[in-house]
Each structure stands twice: as C-alpha cells, then as structure tokens.
Amino acid sequence: MFSTKGKLAGTTGVLVLLAAAGLAGCGGGKEAPRKAESLPAVKAATVKLAEETVPEIYEATGTVRARVSSVLSARVMGYLRELRVQAGDTVQPGQVIAVIEAREIDSGLKQAEAAREEARSALPEVENAIAAARAQLELAEATHRRMKSLFEQKSITQQEFDEAEARLRMARANHEMAAAKKAQLEQKIRQAESAVAQAAAMKSYTEITAPFRGIVVERKAEPGMLAAPGMPIAVVEREGGYRLEAAVEENRLGRIRPGMAVEVILDAAGAPQQGRVEEIVPALDPGSRSFTVKIGVAGGLLRSGMFGRARFTMGEKKALLVPATAVVKKGQVEQAYVVENGVARARLVTTGAAHGERLEVLTGLRAGDTVVAPVPAELRDGSPVEVRP
C-alpha cells in the first residue's frame, strides 16, 4: 500500500512538471512576436535584385612618377658656393641652380687664354717672313729666267747659270720654310684655342643649370659642402609629364595592350581621369609576381609619389548589383536589409566594384532578394516594413 501511494505521488509530480514546462513553452513562443510588434513599422522603398551583365573591371594600385626626371650632379671638384633653388621651385631651361667654387679651373682658363694670345701674337711676324720669302723667290725666278735666256745665247758661263739656279732653289726653300712655320704656328693656335675651349667647358661645369622647364622636387646638397664629380645636387622633374606606374598581376599580362584606355583614380586629384597605357615593362618582379604598366595621365595637379588606382576593363561578366544606398557601413562591416515576410532582416555583405550608383555584391545576397534602398535611419533588424511605391 505504501509503495502504491509513492508511485502515484511520483506520477503526479511528473505531470505537474510537464504542465509547467508546457506553459513555459507556450509563453516563450509568444515572446518573439511581442518584440517584433514592439518595433514601429518603417516606411521604405525596396528593390528586387537580379543578375546583370556588367564590365569586368580589374583594379591595380600604383604610384605617380614623372615621365622625365633628372638628377643634377656636380661634374668638377670644389666647394658648393651657392644653391639658388628650394624644393617646389619652378625652373627654366638654362637657369643656374648651383655654383661651385673652383679656383684651379679659373687659373687653368686664364693660362690657356694667355697661351692662345701668345700664339696669335706671333702670327704677324711669320706672315711678314712669308711675304719676304715670297719676294725673294719671285726675284730669284725672274733672275733665273734671264740667266737661262743668256745661257742659251752663250752670253754667260755655266758657272753663272749654276749660281742663278742655286739662288732660285734657296729662295724656294726659304719660302717653303716660312710657310711651314706659319702652318706650325696655326696648329699651335688651334691647340691653344682647343685648350681654351676645354678650360671654358670646365669653367661652365662650375655652374649647374636646369636642362628643361620643371619642378625641383629635392635638394640633395647644401652650400659649403665639398662637391665631387657625380655628387647629386638637386632633382628636377619635367613639368606636366606624369605617369601612373601600376603593379599588375602576371596572369593579366596577355589582356593588357599599349594604347588601352584606363580609368585612373587619384585620391589627391578628386574625380577619376582617363589615361592610356603607354608602356608595359615585361620583366616581372619575382617578389610580388607582378609587372609594371605605365599609364599616361594628364593633369596639372599631379606630383610624383601620389597614390593611384588603375581600373582596366577586361571584358564582361554576370554580377549582382545593389544600390549603393542599400549598403550601410559600420566601421569595416557592411550590411544590407532584406525584406522577408514584411520584416527587415540585416545581412552582412561584401561589396566589390562600383558601377555608377550601384555596387557589385560578392557575398551576403542572392538574386531574387528584396532589399531596402535607401535605408531609413530608424530601420532596425526585425522592424516591420511598409513598402512605399
């Protein structure tokens, strides 16, 4: 009897617990709807997603470089006396940028000029000697003709005729000697002039000039420093000639050609610009497995070192596009709201390239989804949505 009552009591306890659990389960099932109902309905516009054909865009990053850049260096030894430019200055062709003090070169130029003047001063004397020798030669030739005529007439002796011939030969030799001295002197003058030109060229090296119109981007020396041949003084870039040098993956090499139109995006320049592939460097970087594509870009605001992106159109592909206003960014996280049974559900998404005012969706959404666009500020996950036309 005692055991039967114990069994009945145990069975009753189990039933009570099951009933309590069932009541708790019923109460828990109504909790979510009450929370959803506690959020106010939000009026919003929606867009149904579908796949579309879009251009296949490949984006590569790069750096703006000057098409022509010149490192101005010293060509002679000496102390840097002046440096007349600062970084950012605009220079003109032939403008003196720096001056090197080299007294030995100045002294060498003066010596060469003195030697040239000395050689030139001897020229009148040599010319007078040639004139005198020519006169003696003409006299000897005239005398020889007369003596020859007399000799043929047997009017003079053989000795007298031989003497006339000897005087003619001597006059010719003197004239040739004077002409040779003039030729030597002229050669000496030419050598002196060459020495002067060489010394003047060395003198010109003491002034470092700009090779073209451009912008000084860097000073590499300061006044008072000892300059040696090859020592950089300043870096000048040709104004207005810049290119974006982008690193492109090696598997894209066969799809990029010189002359290909490219959209260039420079953060410092604002709006995208149109560029064109000017050069492809076929040698790959073994570290990054990429090759360099040089893209010509026009614009007066460009400067070396700017960061840029090149967008290459590689063909067409199927993609899922979503209005940019449908994507909410919270730090590094992107999300969109999908309407399911009249309720907004937040989904994490990953977006890709922009196509006008729409973004390519890589993950998080699929064709046929209905998304809220634009997203109202009061919209939350679980908010009822009243679709407005």
Descriptive notes:
- This protein has 389 residues and is of the alpha+beta class.
- 34% of the residues lie in helices and 38% in strands.
- It has 5 helices and 22 strands.
- It has helices at 2-29, 31-38, 103-121, 123-152, 158-204; strands at residues 42-44, 46-48, 51-66, 69-73, 78-83, 90-91, 96-101, 207-209, 214-219, 226-227, 232-238, 242-249, 261-266, 273-285, 290-297, 307-323, 328-330, 333-340, 343-355, 358-363, 370-372, 385-387.
- A 6-stranded antiparallel barrel has the order 3-12-15-14-13-16. Strands 4-11-9-6 form a 4-stranded antiparallel beta sheet, with no helix packed on it. It has a 4-stranded antiparallel beta sheet with strand order 8-7-5-10, with no helix packed on it.
- β19 (343-355) and β20 (358-363) form a beta hairpin.
- α3 (103-121) packs antiparallel against α5 (158-204).
- The longest helix is centred in the middle third of the chain and has 47 residues, at 158-204.
| Share of helix, binned | 25-40%
Structural class: alpha+beta
Oligomer: single chain
| Major β-sheet profile | 6 strands, antiparallel, barrel
- Beta content comes to 35-45%
